[in-house]
Design goal:
3-stranded antiparallel sheet; 0% helix
């Protein structure tokens, strides 16, 4: 958690998954409560936040290498679903 204070001073939860999009210089984090945050890495700012309240726990997230959206997996069933911001 202390490592994310430089990126997000309001961070209270340790991320369950982290991925970096080199093309857009963005860092994405997911948390066990369903929160997803996307940061602009070079500007050290939060650019997007969303809470998936009805999709269960997000266990892993990955940037889609061919598009700029993210692919998420649910923890319980490993069912992939996509979210585009």
């Amino acid at each position: 958690l202390c490592c994310f204070k430089w990126l997000d001073e309001t961070a209270r939860l340790t991320p369950s998954s982290i991925d970096y999009n080199k093309s857009f210089d963005q860092i994405s984090t997911s948390h066990l409560n369903g929160t997803v945050k996307i940061y602009n890495a070079s500007q050290y700012s939060l650019s997007y936040q969303y809470v998936f309240s009805n999709h269960g726990v997000l266990h892993q997230l990955k940037w889609n290498p061919t598009e700029s959206n993210l692919v998420y997996k649910k923890k319980q069933h490993n069912t992939p679903f996509q979210f585009q911001f």
